[in-house]
Amino acid sequence: MNTYHEGGLKIELQRIKQTSHQTTGLLTIFNEPLAVFQCRTLELPWKDNKRNISCIPAGYYPMVWEYSPKYDRFLWELKDVPSRSEVKIHPANYVEQLNGCIALGQKMLDINGDGNKDITNSRKTVRQFQSELEPFQNEIVYIHIADPTIDKLPTFVSPFLN
Q1: What integer pLDDT is reported at residue 1 of this predicted model?
Q2: Quick one: 9 exposed, middle or buried, by C-beta within 10 A (0-12, 13-18, 19+)?
Q3: pTM to 2 decimals?
Q4: Where are the domains of the chain?
Q5: What φ, ψ does residue 131 adopt, rounded to 5°?
């Protein structure tokens, strides 16, 4: 499947670490040939795609810019996720704030002292993500979610992250 949008837009989420508590990763937006945005991701752990307790399966998904009544704002939503709906990309600092969605942030730190990595600057990072995709809000864009046990994508760490 072609994961590029017309004009060279490509969104890759490379899952880096999966534990029984959470899944962490790195999301990169490419406007080929350049990486124009990169951030950390936080998701639920893999639990066989069970609603509200599992991250979604790796794969290619269309995303649309839609209004979310729950969050009272527009967010990017992944579509065609097997056995799921309402999979959003939204701000969250802790995995406990997620029900199958994807949180974006700047760094992975144990903010609340529970021994698990949390994600920092989530609201700001989601705003930056949305700003990068603003020209595509009336279109369908695609995201590729790569699982380290399935896909072997090259590691790319940009100067966007400290």
Answers
A1: 39
A2: buried
A3: 0.88
A4: 4-146
A5: -65, -40
pLDDT at 141 over 90: yes
- The owner of tokens 């020209």 is 135
Query: How many angstroms separate the CA atoms of 99 and 122, rounded?
Result: 16
Q: Which of 37, 30, 159, 48 is nearest to 104 (CA)?
A: 37
Contacts 24+ apart (CB under 8 A), 45-51: 45/18, 45/19, 45/20, 45/21, 46/18, 49/82, 49/83, 49/84, 51/83, 51/84, 51/99, 51/100
d(CA 61, CA 73): 21
pLDDT in tens, 87-123: 999 999 999 999 999 999 999 999 999 999 999 999 9
Task: Enter the DSSP assignment of 57.
Answer: P
What 3-state DSSP class applies to 73?
strand
- Write down the architecture of domain 4-146 according to CATH: Beta Barrel (2.40)
